[in-house]
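Collaborator request log, item 7. Partner lab (contact: R.S.) asked for a structural prediction of TMEM205-like domain-containing protein to inform their binding assays.
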Amino acid sequence: MRSRRLFGSGNKRVTKNRVVSITATSPPCNLKPTLSPTQLSRDYKISEIMDPRPYHILSYGTLLGTQFYQSFVGGFVAFRALPRPQFASLQSALFPIYFSLQTALPVVVALTASRGGQVLGLSGLAAPENRLDTLLPLSTVAVTGLVNMFVLRPLTTRVMHERKHQETRDGKRSYDPAPHSKEMLALNKKFGRVHGISSLVNLVSLIATVWYGVALSKRLE
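Returned to partner:
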């Protein structure tokens, strides 16, 4: 409050009070926070790490490459380059790893399947539009890997051990020129049958993997 004196005619003093109000103006306040370049870079890196699409492509490529190499390259080259006992030892060491990858990788591929960067999940995989081109082939690959790992591989290993014992009794290796004993002929036939079934199951797995790859290629932008 401020007082001002006004002088008129004569010696009369008139006092008049005036209330002066001051309105303070302040610049507009921007409530939206701004991110520093470091924060933006960190958020971008986190979003890139959480994106399932790179993991999906890498896991699928690893699955297809492993199957193709073992089925058409590694096995044939090893069979031609190594003596039969060394070849059998190599395959016995490789098959558990191969069948484990054949079982685990399609699970990773299924878990990282996405639409627009959003993971499908179990409900999305079971949706009608994804059953035939995603769920079915990936399930086929995983199941064939399990069958080879826990059913056919033990059968093959058991027949190989039986043939080894029979070789000791016959004094002749199973792959030597004929003639062979009846027991060895039966074991060779059994081994060929089990090995053939295992190869067929592996081929079904490879076809299912390629089948999914064709469906995947149609979704790439």
